Amino acid sequence: MMLKFLNLTLFVLFAVSVCFAQKVTATSNGIFYNVKNYGATGNGKHLDQGAINKAIEACAGKGGGTVYVPAGIYLCGSIRLKSNINLYLDAGATILGAPPESKAYDEAEAFADTAYQDGGHTYFHNSLIWGEHLSNVSITGRGKIDGGGMTNKDHEHMGDPTGGSIGTGDKAIALKLCSNILIRDVTIFHGGHFAILLTGCDLVTLDNLTIDTNRDGIDIDCCTNTLVSNCRVNSPHDDAICPKSSYALNKPQITENLVITNCEVSGYEEGTLLNGKRIPAKAGWSNGRIKFGTESNGGFRNCVVSNCTFRNCNGLALEEVDGGIMENIIVTNITMQDITHYPIYVTLGKRNRGPKASTHMGTVKNILISNIYVTGADSLSGIQLTGTPGYPLQNITLQNISVQYKGGGTKEQGMKPFPELEKGYPEPFLLGANPAYGLFARHINGLHLLNISFTTAKQDNRPALIAQDVNGLEIDRFKVPEVMGNQLFQFAEVSNKDITHAAWLILK
Q1: According to the UniProt entry, where is the signal peptide (predicted)?
Q2: What is the distance between the alpha carbons of residues 77 and 97, in angstroms, rounded to a whole number?
């Protein structure tokens, strides 16, 4: 009797599996649209974007559903998403970017007005996967997007608005003015200029993504109500997760209500996150960090970064330099190891790249950075908190911060005047070695330093703390190593001090 029951059970399970397989491969049931039934080969040799686009159009024409990409390698140019579509990449499925000479990518759209933003932020249709003015769109599954022959140019920094490679497929995923977006579980390798670029989007969820690329990993530009969670982003020569608020929509538009949580960012050589070798890349312009800006015409408001790890990359950067606001930002529960250039960088500059008639000085206020543990921090610069003359940072709190620096700085470095950022590009290494190895603060109204601890692997002969033009300096529990004969701090134009539990800071 038991044997008959087991046989019946196995038969039922087999029947269910057969039915499910038929459902997945069906082309007209309104739920699953298998791209192979629309002519996709999946052999990695023939261009398949035409077949995939046919499947997407058929699915959208029936009101939406899932476009199913089974295991295989699909050589593709531009794939055009539609509303109410879930592009599902099954395990073993790879969308492979075609080389530029294939002419398989859509032409970049026209940009009628002056481009005050980098070229990579100006054009979208020339991407591997793109969509505009869509709603209820998702890319999911355990498959991979491999940029393959996509363009991956060198940096276009320093304010060149024509930067970026136009017409050759320079972004893996680009979505503009879309709502209710979900990208989950997929892996992106060699993602071009941006692995994921979201511009002017609302209600966005990016979850459980693995990105191993050479340029920016995730750029969130002029977006609202965005959640980035449980993602691993490796970007050895650019930023890993980068909120922005550029002028790409021909107006300043804020990025707000953003949460980045439970993520890992790193600066290993491209591909070595995925293969497990984790080979540290040489630090260049920027690598592997979480950075707000530099594109910041609209600014940032109500943003939280929590429970993240940084490894072999630059530290956290909050940069407002194009006239927008940066306010109500919380960064908490962060660990960093082997950090290049600086551990924390908060700055207000006046690059003000945008129309002269509408661009004004920005503001930075209400920033809380807490529970940060850093080891192996670069000797180039400690924490930098800098406003601009006449435009101070406001209400900045650092709490429960522990940084172990490499040290080795000289007295001569500690005595050099440190240049103002002004209209310069906001990267600490461009200004040279900082005169403070631990924390440099300038042009701030309301600076609160609570439970701060610095140590050095090698003796550093620069001051641990330099504060200039700071009104309202509160310090409680601040520890640094004492170095005989060295000046541990420098204050200039510091008013309204409240210092407790930091005997080395008590003026004699």
Answers
A1: 1-21
A2: 6
